[in-house]
Every structure is written in structure tokens, then in C-alpha cells.
Design a protein that fits this description.
This protein has about 270 residues and is α/β, with parallel strands linked by helices. About 30% of the residues lie in helices and about 20% in strands. It has a six-stranded mixed sheet, sandwiched between helices.
């Protein structure tokens, strides 16, 4: 029997060793046993999780000893390293509003620096963090960063309204029309190459020790959250930190039992 998945009216063949299960990743207990997954991958769950520390502890609990948990997240706050983005800009206002709304909606948006501490407290070792700065338009001179800015600009001009409506209307009680006016004011700033703004992406992996009783972690003492400024002449937007002597984690086995939580529709309303 061929396993098929229908997405937006199109059918796709699903590999025989892949199946989709629906569960609440914020439930007190996951339906899978402890020490179950070789690899858990989670991404872009901002404004969807009420307690990040608890979520990461559950990921640790259900990862096999020697297995890995990977988290890829966005710190959606717009910022700049050369003060071309001012507090009076609409993008800065949007950042403050969206964070405030997420808190009131009980889905706080962490800063990108917060996750490592939760990994450590959960018990993960061999923690690796990579931080990327994503320019909001093609203002950098570096071709790679300029290309990234083009994609980001398209994503923001077409999608910022959609990701804002749910939080600002439900969290702060705004009317949809008010949200649309704010986004309309943000769009010229998104396109302004004189504003060297960006958002921050963070990729973190952690390994569950073979014997959790002997877990140790010295990430905090070795890690610096100071990132290289992103300027028009930057050649790279990323900083990689290897806190332990082991360096990057080894490649996972060819056959793994993996789990990828998918962001639920909480606090987000797609625009019409």
C-alpha cells in the first residue's frame, strides 16, 4: 500500500518509514515513552509555546541517551548594529508590540540568547550554537547577504501582516484595520536600504549524554553572546560557538527514530 499525503489539493508520496502523528507538544506528558527518539527537530515555534524551559526539558526526557535535539528559532525583533534603525521607526514599534502581545497571549517570544541556558538546565551536553543575522532587505554589499535580504524583504512585505494579525488582535485587542495600517507604515522602512536592520536566527543542537547521571556542561563559561556587527561591508552574518572540546556533533546514524514538532496555529491568522 502506498502512503499518500494530501497538501493543498496535491498528493505526495510519503516514504514507508515516515508517518504523521498529531499530539499536543505542550501537554504535560508526551504520548511517546522516555528515551525514545534518536533525533528531535523543532523550528519556528515562536508565539506558540507558553513555557520554553518545560518544552526543552520534555525534549530531553524523550531523547535517547546519545541522541540529539535541534532547535532553530527566530528572534523576530528588528534591530541594527549601526543605529540606522531608531526607536522611533515603525519597525521598532512593531517589535515592541509583537513581544508585548505575545506575553499577554501567554506565548512569550524569547531572545535568541535565552535558549542555551534552557538546554544546559535540561541536561544537554556538547551544545553547539550558530547565530545568523538576516538582513531585512538587500542593503549589505556582500552578495550572499544581499541575496538573503532579497528573500527576507519578500517574506516581510508579503507575510508581516499575516503573522501580526492574530497576536495584535487577540493579544492587544487591536482591530484588523489598525494592524493593516501599522504594516503599511512598516513597508517603506523594510525597503529602505539606508536602514541596516536585521532579525536574528539561532540554531542550537544538544546531545543527551549516554549516562545522564554524569552530565556536565561548561557552555556558559566558554560562550560569548557578543556577535560581530552586521554592516554594509560585512562578509558573514553568522557566528558559530563550540563550547566543548568535542566540536561539532557527529553525524547521526542512517536509520533514526526522529520527531519534528510542527507549529500549531496559535496566535497567527493568515491574511486574506
Amino acid at each position: 500500500m502506498v502512503n499518500m499525503l494530501t497538501i493543498t489539493g496535491k498528493c505526495f508520496r510519503v516514504p514507508d518509514n515516515v508517518r504523521f502523528e498529531i499530539d499536543d507538544c505542550e501537554a504535560k506528558f508526551w504520548k511517546w515513552p522516555e528515551d525514545h527518539f534518536d533525533y528531535i527537530h523543532m523550528r519556528f515555534m515562536i508565539a506558540s509555546i507558553g513555557n520554553w524551559a518545560s518544552m526543552i526539558r520534555k525534549a530531553y526526557r524523550h531523547t535517547k541517551p546519545g541522541g540529539y535535539f535541534e532547535l532553530q528559532e527566530l528572534d523576530c525583533r528588528f534591530t541594527s548594529d549601526d543605529n540606522t534603525l531608531l526607536e522611533t521607526h515603525n519597525l521598532s514599534y512593531w517589535s515592541r508590540l509583537i513581544v508585548e502581545a505575545a506575553v499577554k497571549y501567554n506565548r512569550p517570544i524569547p531572545r535568541y540568547t535565552d535558549y542555551v541556558g534552557w538546554f544546559e538546565k535540561a541536561g544537554f551536553t556538547d551544545i553547539r550554537q550558530v547565530v545568523f543575522k538576516s538582513p531585512t532587505n538587500p542593503w549589505p554589499k556582500n552578495k550572499t547577504l544581499k541575496d538573503a535580504g532579497k528573500f527576507q524583504l519578500l517574506a516581510h512585505t508579503e507575510g508581516l501582516e499575516g503573522v501580526s494579525l492574530g497576536l495584535l488582535t487577540r493579544g492587544l485587542g487591536w482591530r484588523a484595520e489598525e494592524v493593516k495600517v501599522l504594516i503599511a507604515k512598516c513597508r517603506p522602512e523594510l525597503k529602505d536600504r539606508g536602514i541596516h536592520s536585521y532579525q536574528t536566527n539561532v540554531f542550537i543542537t544538544g546531545r543527551k549524554p549516554e549516562d545522564p547521571r554524569h552530565s556536565s556542561n561548561n557552555y556558559s563559561s566558554r560562550h560569548s553572546n557578543v556577535s560581530a556587527p552586521l554592516t554594509p561591508t560585512s562578509t558573514s552574518s553568522s557566528n558559530t560557538h563550540f563550547p566543548n572540546k568535542q566540536g561539532s556533533p557527529p553525524a547521526p546514524p542512517e536509520e533514526i527514530n526522529a520527531f519534528t514538532p510542527v507549529m500549531p496555529v496559535v496566535g497567527h491568522v493568515a491574511s486574506g
